[in-house]
């Protein structure tokens, strides 16, 4: 239990004794379960769950979360099951552990698919209970701290995943402590040289700037003291990874990024924030365009603060964030601050309410996207940290990611407004649908009832919701068009029979035969080319049923060899070469019409499962013409054997269409002969003639 003592002290500070004891019981089970296991570093495995639980205890999370953190690898790595945990610690803890457990049981075709599906499951688990993601983030933070013990390729993969998925998630949930640590550790693991170089540059720059930072800090403190405001003033260090990102994306030189001096002023009351703002604007000249009020309009992750940029001594830019103590805690801990797990939407801190609202939108996104790749691509765009705030004409605030366009705005207001959008006005002026919006603008969308989304919108929309809804509409549109086309084709195939007069019972019978759910689906399959209209028409008119029942009836003579294929493009399958007398079935092949196979052909095996693609046909009573079939002859190779074989075939009244030989042994050959025959009777006659030859071992009809 010595490993648990540090954690016990942390928990005793804020949890009642009986909850601490329940957590100790969870530790005992985890320690027992992981006893034989070691980490890559060689330490006992239990050190990892304890470190994860300790990170969460720092955030003052409830005892169920701490217990789940201690047990988070038990289901995956040990014989214990979710039921075992539920029995000992309750269903909530067991569900949290199951939510956090990695999804190794699933089978995937590729690494990317595995990752994508994992992310999707993780995000869906997080929608179910947000504590799952808090445990997952703490788990990832500790893994990143000990990443040095892994192979370089594995290290890079985990670091990239951390920077692309986990750090933005932590940001989106407002947990900046974890976000900053994940970014720093991820940066060092993915780009060790760049990180080291940048770190040494920052240290040098910091030394050169110390005097100026102290002067600005003293001037701010003196001004606030003079106007009677109690506040803490802190010089704020720029985060290493954010310096790198600014240099990379804004194409700034290191000197330009480091040229900005940042401070934080922390006070007790919200009102005081605005008094501080006034005092600072009197001290240094504000830079007009650089003021943001995130107190009145909090960021989507619940972050609140006043941001202002000023011209300090010697004209250097000074950035100041002004916030209350509570806002400061929120900025560092986000959703995890003042933890009180509540299920009602109206309760909890702003960050929790907003996080839950965001996760609800993820749930909607999951339902309307086609696959895991599309979903993750959309979630990634939802994780982008920068937001803009625009207004509806009624003054409602709509929050959108940076780069959002009027189309994104339209879909954010309502799906129907997005679908019927034809134009936009921004601040009462006409605005292009593809032009990005800016914070503070009032956007008015013009709609027209008959209009529909344009596929070109997918090139510029940035929100996952807009992209998913446009794709969903376009897919639906394809279906509707396929349905209309299918109906037109079926009407034409029915000829003189009126489509509208066919009874519902007939349709129900045919739907049952072809194993489809609805008439619309049947028309869609015809329109998409998966079924032939003429084949479905024959089914509706009962011709196929008639064909199945009375094989004996002698039909009217026609030039066709096949009954049931009238009016259809038809060919004979080369794989099995059917001839009159064979049991046959026709396969509906888009573009080739009907392809007739022998029933025993392996290429049409399982046709009972797909009745829409096959239908019964029969030979005419006395078909005209000759048909090609193939036989294989196994012979001992003597001089003149081929000549004897061709003579025997000619004697049976058949022509040779093609001939191939293949050596089987030293003097045994296979000879494959393609013959033209009238029917099975003539074929049997040929085979009899060939068998009589002295050098022939065996002869049989080929089935491929």
Automatic annotation (TrEMBL):
<comment type="similarity">
    <text>Belongs to the relA/spoT family.</text>
</comment>
<dbReference type="GO" id="GO:0015970">
    <property type="term" value="P:guanosine tetraphosphate biosynthetic process"/>
</dbReference>
<feature type="domain" description="TGS">
    <location>
        <begin position="386"/>
        <end position="447"/>
    </location>
</feature>
<dbReference type="GO" id="GO:0042594">
    <property type="term" value="P:response to starvation"/>
</dbReference>
<dbReference type="Pfam" id="PF02824">
    <property type="entry name" value="TGS"/>
</dbReference>
<feature type="domain" description="ACT">
    <location>
        <begin position="630"/>
        <end position="701"/>
    </location>
</feature>
<keyword id="KW-0808">Transferase</keyword>
<dbReference type="Pfam" id="PF04607">
    <property type="entry name" value="RelA_SpoT"/>
</dbReference>
<dbReference type="InterPro" id="IPR043519">
    <property type="entry name" value="NT_sf"/>
</dbReference>
<dbReference type="InterPro" id="IPR004811">
    <property type="entry name" value="RelA/Spo_fam"/>
</dbReference>
<dbReference type="InterPro" id="IPR012676">
    <property type="entry name" value="TGS-like"/>
</dbReference>
<dbReference type="InterPro" id="IPR033655">
    <property type="entry name" value="TGS_RelA/SpoT"/>
</dbReference>
<keyword id="KW-0418">Kinase</keyword>
<protein>
    <recommendedName>
        <fullName>guanosine-3',5'-bis(diphosphate) 3'-diphosphatase</fullName>
        <ecNumber>3.1.7.2</ecNumber>
    </recommendedName>
</protein>
<dbReference type="GO" id="GO:0015949">
    <property type="term" value="P:nucleobase-containing small molecule interconversion"/>
</dbReference>
<comment type="function">
    <text>In eubacteria ppGpp (guanosine 3'-diphosphate 5'-diphosphate) is a mediator of the stringent response that coordinates a variety of cellular activities in response to changes in nutritional abundance.</text>
</comment>
<dbReference type="Pfam" id="PF19296">
    <property type="entry name" value="RelA_AH_RIS"/>
</dbReference>
<dbReference type="InterPro" id="IPR012675">
    <property type="entry name" value="Beta-grasp_dom_sf"/>
</dbReference>
<dbReference type="Pfam" id="PF13291">
    <property type="entry name" value="ACT_4"/>
</dbReference>
<dbReference type="Pfam" id="PF13328">
    <property type="entry name" value="HD_4"/>
</dbReference>
<dbReference type="GO" id="GO:0016301">
    <property type="term" value="F:kinase activity"/>
</dbReference>
<dbReference type="InterPro" id="IPR004095">
    <property type="entry name" value="TGS"/>
</dbReference>
<keyword id="KW-0378">Hydrolase</keyword>
<dbReference type="InterPro" id="IPR002912">
    <property type="entry name" value="ACT_dom"/>
</dbReference>
<dbReference type="InterPro" id="IPR007685">
    <property type="entry name" value="RelA_SpoT"/>
</dbReference>
<dbReference type="GO" id="GO:0008728">
    <property type="term" value="F:GTP diphosphokinase activity"/>
</dbReference>
<feature type="domain" description="HD">
    <location>
        <begin position="45"/>
        <end position="144"/>
    </location>
</feature>
<dbReference type="GO" id="GO:0008893">
    <property type="term" value="F:guanosine-3',5'-bis(diphosphate) 3'-diphosphatase activity"/>
</dbReference>
<dbReference type="InterPro" id="IPR003607">
    <property type="entry name" value="HD/PDEase_dom"/>
</dbReference>
<dbReference type="InterPro" id="IPR045865">
    <property type="entry name" value="ACT-like_dom_sf"/>
</dbReference>
<dbReference type="GO" id="GO:0005886">
    <property type="term" value="C:plasma membrane"/>
</dbReference>
<dbReference type="InterPro" id="IPR045600">
    <property type="entry name" value="RelA/SpoT_AH_RIS"/>
</dbReference>
<dbReference type="InterPro" id="IPR006674">
    <property type="entry name" value="HD_domain"/>
</dbReference>
<comment type="pathway">
    <text>Purine metabolism; ppGpp biosynthesis; ppGpp from GDP: step 1/1.</text>
</comment>
């Amino acid at each position: 239990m010595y490993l648990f003592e540090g954690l016990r002290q942390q928990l005793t500070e804020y949890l009642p004794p009986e909850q601490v004891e329940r957590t100790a019981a969870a530790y005992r089970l985890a320690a027992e379960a992981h006893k034989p296991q070691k980490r890559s570093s060689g330490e006992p495995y239990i050190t990892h769950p304890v470190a994860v639980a300790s990170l969460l205890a720092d955030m003052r999370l409830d005892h169920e979360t701490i217990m789940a953190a201690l047990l988070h690898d038990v289901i995956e790595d040990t014989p214990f099951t979710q039921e075992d945990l539920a029995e000992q610690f309750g269903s909530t803890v067991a569900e949290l552990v199951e939510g956090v457990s990695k999804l190794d049981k699933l089978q995937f075709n590729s690494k990317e698919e595995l990752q994508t599906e994992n992310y999707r499951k993780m995000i869906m688990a997080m929608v179910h209970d947000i504590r799952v993601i808090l445990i997952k983030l703490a788990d990832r933070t500790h893994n990143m701290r000990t990443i040095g013990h892994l192979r370089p390729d594995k290290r890079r993969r985990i670091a990239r995943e951390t920077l692309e998925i986990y750090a933005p998630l932590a940001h989106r949930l407002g947990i900046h402590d974890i976000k900053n640590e994940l970014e720093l550790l991820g940066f060092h693991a993915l780009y060790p040289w760049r990180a080291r170089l940048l770190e040494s540059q920052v240290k040098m720059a910091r030394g050169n700037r110390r005097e100026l930072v102290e002067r600005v800090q003293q001037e701010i403190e003196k001004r606030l003291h003079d106007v009677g405001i109690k506040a803490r003033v802190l010089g704020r260090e720029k985060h290493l990874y954010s310096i790198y990102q600014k240099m990379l994306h804004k194409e700034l030189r290191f000197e330009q990024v480091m040229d900005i001096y940042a401070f934080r002023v922390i006070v007790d009351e919200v009102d005081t924030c605005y008094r501080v703002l006034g005092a600072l604007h009197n001290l240094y000249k504000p830079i007009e365009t650089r003021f943001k009020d995130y107190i009145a309009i909090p960021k989507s992750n619940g972050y609140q603060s006043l941001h202002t940029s000023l011209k300090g001594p010697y004209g250097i830019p000074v950035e100041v964030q002004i916030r209350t103590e509570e806002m400061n805690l929120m900025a560092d801990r986000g959703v995890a601050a003042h933890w009180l797990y509540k299920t009602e939407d109206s309760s909890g801190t702003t960050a929790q309410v907003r996080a839950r609202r965001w996760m609800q939108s993820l749930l909607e996104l999951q339902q309307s996207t086609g696959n895991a790749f599309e979903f993750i691509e959309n979630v990634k765009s939802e994780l982008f940290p920068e937001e803009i705030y625009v207004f509806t004409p009624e003054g409602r605030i709509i929050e959108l990611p940076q780069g959002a366009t009027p189309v994104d705005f339209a879909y954010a207001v309502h799906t129907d407004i997005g679908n019927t959008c034809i134009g936009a006005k921004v601040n009462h002026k006409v605005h292009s649908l593809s032009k990005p919006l800016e914070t503070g603008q009032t956007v008015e969308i013009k709609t027209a009832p008959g209009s529909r989304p344009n596929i070109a919108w997918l090139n510029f929309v940035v929100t996952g919701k807009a992209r998913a809804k446009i794709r969903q509409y376009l897919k639906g549109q394809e279906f509707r068009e396929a349905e209309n086309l299918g109906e037109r084709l079926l009407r034409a195939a029915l000829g003189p029979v009126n489509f509208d007069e066919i009874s519902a019972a007939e349709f129900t019978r045919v739907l049952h035969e072809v194993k489809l759910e609805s008439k619309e689906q049947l028309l869609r399959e015809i329109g998409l080319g998966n079924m032939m209209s003429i084949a479905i028409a024959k089914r509706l008119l009962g011709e196929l049923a008639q064909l199945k029942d009375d094989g004996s009836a002698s039909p009217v003579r026609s030039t066709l060899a096949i009954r049931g294929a009238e009016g259809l493009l038809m060919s004979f399958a080369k794989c099995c070469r059917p001839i009159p007398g064979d049991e046959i079935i026709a396969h509906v092949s888009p573009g080739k019409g009907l392809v007739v196979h022998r029933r025993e052909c392996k290429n049409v095996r399982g046709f009972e499962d797909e009745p829409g693609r096959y239908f019964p046909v029969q030979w005419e009573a006395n078909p005209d013409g000759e048909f090609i079939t193939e036989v294989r002859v196994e012979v001992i190779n003597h001089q003149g054997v081929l000549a004897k074989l061709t003579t025997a075939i000619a004697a049976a009244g058949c022509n040779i269409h093609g001939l191939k030989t293949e050596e089987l042994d030293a003097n045994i050959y296979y000879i494959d002969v393609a013959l033209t025959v009238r029917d099975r009777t003539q074929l049997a006659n040929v085979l009899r003639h060939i068998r009589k030859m002295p050098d022939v071992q065996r002869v049989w009809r080929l089935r491929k």
